[in-house]
Structures are given as C-alpha cells and as structure tokens.
Design goal:
It contains three helices and seven strands. The chain is globular. 22% of the residues lie in helices and 25% in strands. The protein has one domain: Beta Polymerase, domain 2, CATH 3.30.460.
Length: 189
C-alpha cells in the first residue's frame, strides 16, 4: 500500500472531486505564464495526494499571485513553505509552497528547484506570513530569499555554524554554547 491507494475518508476522494479543477488551473497557469510551469506530478501517476507543480524560480511570485487572486483558483491561504535537500541534477534544493483554498477545499503544492547559492524571491509581498517560514528555510537549509525584510536565524542560536537539515551536515554536528548569547538591543526596540 502506498499513497496512491485510495482510502475512504469523510471528505471523499480528492482526485475524483478536484481532479478536473486542478487540471484546468494548471492549464490556466501555463497559458498565462508560458514557460513558468516546468512540470507537474499528478496524484494518479505519482505517489502524492495533491498535484505538485514545478515552477521556475523567476516566475514563482507571479504564479503565487495568480493562484491567490484569480477567480476559480482562490488559494488565499499559505499553509507552509519548506524545503528538501534533493541533490539532483536540476538543483540541490526544492523550495516547497503548500497552498490551500478555504472556500473550495482545494490544496496545491508548488516546488521551485534551487541550486547551491541561488536565491528565491521572497513571498512576503504576496503573503506577509511567509516571513517566518522563509526564515526557517534559511536557518535549516541555507536557502536565501531575495527581498526578505529580516532574513536571520529563527530556530537555531545566532552563533550556530551551518544549516542542520542539509544532507552534508554532520550527524554529530553538535555545537555547545556554555554562555547565553549577548542580547541584541536593536531587536528589543
């Protein structure tokens, strides 16, 4: 049994309920932004619960804005931004955007492939709540977001060296700080 095995839920079968809308939305994105959609992994043929739309790095903000604002899409809730360290030939990292449409019950996952040292445009202009989750991605993976208003560590100590969720980070990469970090007075104002 894998994720493609249909399981009855109180919400019904998502593929059956939303499959046609997802396909229409992806086609609308392709028509509005030629070249922005690199590929799509569909739940019918890939072990995923919702479509995974790979978007080019330079078009991600335009696509996110369209998904949020256009009637028939209305993905106006950014559930999460995270990343994975893939290390593949298309880019080391995948920055992952989880979107939800509360009005329609649709969910969608977007991914952007990012090579080492490349920056992704910050989504804080589209969703101000992206501020903290982008900081988490920076802290854990080292992926920078251009245009971010305050890109600094959020989970790890400011003195921490490295990014602990990278595959090349040592498993026993302990860093102990016997004294508390000095207080940055500018953050208290």
């Amino acid at each position: 049994m894998d994720i493609r095995t249909r399981v009855s839920t109180i919400y019904g079968d998502q593929i059956e309920r939303f499959g046609a809308q997802w396909k229409a939305q992806v086609e609308e994105l392709r028509a509005a932004h030629p070249g922005a959609v690199e590929s799509v992994l569909w739940p019918e043929s890939y072990p995923t619960d919702v479509p995974i739309v790979f978007v080019t790095r330079d078009q991600i903000l335009t696509v996110l804005t369209q998904l949020r604002d256009n009637p028939g899409m209305e993905y106006n809730f950014l559930s999460d931004i995270t990343a994975t360290d893939e290390g593949d030939e298309h880019g080391r990292f995948h920055v992952v955007y989880h979107l939800f449409s509360p009005k329609n019950g649709w969910r969608l996952r977007l991914k952007v492939r990012v090579s080492e040292g490349q920056e992704v445009p910050s989504a804080t202009a589209v969703w101000p709540a992206a501020n903290w989750v982008e900081r988490e991605v920076w802290d854990m993976f080292g992926v920078k977001f251009s245009g971010h208003p305050d890109l600094r560590r959020i989970l790890m100590d400011q003195r921490w060296v490295g990014h602990p969720l990278r595959k090349d980070y040592p498993l026993r990469g302990y860093q102990l700080f016997p004294d508390p970090a000095p207080v940055d007075q500018s953050l208290l104002e």
